[in-house]
């Protein structure tokens, strides 16, 4: 099995606290770099759990198209600013942060008061500008989730009228790029590949942790396939009905009909069920009277046979 090495060759933290990590993975067999790169990128961009602002309540505001006296930004601007706040919630339950300021003030994300379960990653993210003599009061909801969750407009009637819902982006990864280097050559001249991956997170998780989480998800996805055993199941023969086990003697047929059936190797009701009325008539010395007698005897125990072979 080919052993490869994983090196983090670069790590940067930007002013907005987003983190960039560059990883070099190799050497790999030809084609494996593409397999790894595509799989990891897909999980990183859509499969990792993250935190996001999902709703905002603003005191005195009932809809997103309102304006707030003494606040430079309108409600839509404030909602957009709140949506862009990077948060890291360690709780699976809804967390609520609160903010109350009196102007003049430049309100920023670090001014929001959360419980110890929530960390605001970029505290300098602007939210609003409040003029002197005016107040701004916010309630901000934070949840954990995966991927992107749009606002369900159909359920707005079930929530408080002043709770403004926000399309939630739970993805902690902002960008993933990868390139493949085919210059590495192994013994014997066979080509090897190296995978170079660049991850940019929103700061709520590190590139190292994100890459490890994506790899673990892929392991859990493929693990059942590694232990699968394809055993062909032999279908069980259905057990015949109790009526089919009745011996021919218990039908109380006439001696002529009984003897003719015995000579035709008919020993039980189950044997008779393979015959049609036309088949009975073809038995040697078996006339229509005997055939009608058999039909009546079978009907007494709840069994019927077809009139002809084609209707069987």
Tell me the span between the first and last alpha carbons. 61 Å
Mean pLDDT: 85
CATH class category label of the largest domain: Mainly Beta
CATH architecture of the largest domain: Beta Complex
Computed Rg = 39 Å
Q: Give the helix tally.
A: 7
The SS-based structural class is: alpha+beta
- What portion of the residues fall into strands of 2 or more residues? 25-35%
The major pleated sheet works out as: 4 strands, antiparallel
Shape annotation: elongated
Query: What name goes with the CATH superfamily of the largest domain?
Result: DNA-directed RNA polymerase, insert domain
Strand order of the largest sheet: 1-2-14-13
What does this molecule look like?
The protein is an alpha+beta fold. The protein is built from 7 helices and 14 strands. The strands form 5 sheets. Strands 1-2-14-13 form a 4-stranded antiparallel β-sheet, with helices on one face. Strand 1 and strand 2 form a beta hairpin. The model has no long low-confidence stretch (mean pLDDT 85).
């Amino acid at each position: 099995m080919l052993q490869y090495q994983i090196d983090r060759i670069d790590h940067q933290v930007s002013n907005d606290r987003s983190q960039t990590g560059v990883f070099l993975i190799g050497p790999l067999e030809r084609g494996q770099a593409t397999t790894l790169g595509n799989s990891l990128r897909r999980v990183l961009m859509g499969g990792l759990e993250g935190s996001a602002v999902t709703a905002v309540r603003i005191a005195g505001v009932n809809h997103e198209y309102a304006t707030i006296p003494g606040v430079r930004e309108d409600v839509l601007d404030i909602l957009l600013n709140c949506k862009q706040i990077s948060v890291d919630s360690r709780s699976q339950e809804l967390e609520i942060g609160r903010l109350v300021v009196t102007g003049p003030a430049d309100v920023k994300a670090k001014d929001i008061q959360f419980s110890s379960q929530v960390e605001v990653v970029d505290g300098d993210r602007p939210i609003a500008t409040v003029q002197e003599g005016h107040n701004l009061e916010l309630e901000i909801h934070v949840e954990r989730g995966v991927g992107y969750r749009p606002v369900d407009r159909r359920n707005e009637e079930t929530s408080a009228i002043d709770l403004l819902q926000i399309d939630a982006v739970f993805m902690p990864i902002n960008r993933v790029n990868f390139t493949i280097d085919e210059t590495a050559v192994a013994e014997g001249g066979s080509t090897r590949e190296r995978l170079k991956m660049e991850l940019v997170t929103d700061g709520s998780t590190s590139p190292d942790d994100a890459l490890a989480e994506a790899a673990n998800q892929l392991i859990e996805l493929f693990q059942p396939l590694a232990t699968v055993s394809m055993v062909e199941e032999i279908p069980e023969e259905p057990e015949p009905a109790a009526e089919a086990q009745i011996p021919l003697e218990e039908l109380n047929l006439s001696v002529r009909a009984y003897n003719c059936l015995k000579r035709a190797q008919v020993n039980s009701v189950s044997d008779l069920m393979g015959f049609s009325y036309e088949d009975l008539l073809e038995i040697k010395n078996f006339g229509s009277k005997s055939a009608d007698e058999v039909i009546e005897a079978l009907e007494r125990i709840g069994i019927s046979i077809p009139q002809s072979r084609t209707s069987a």
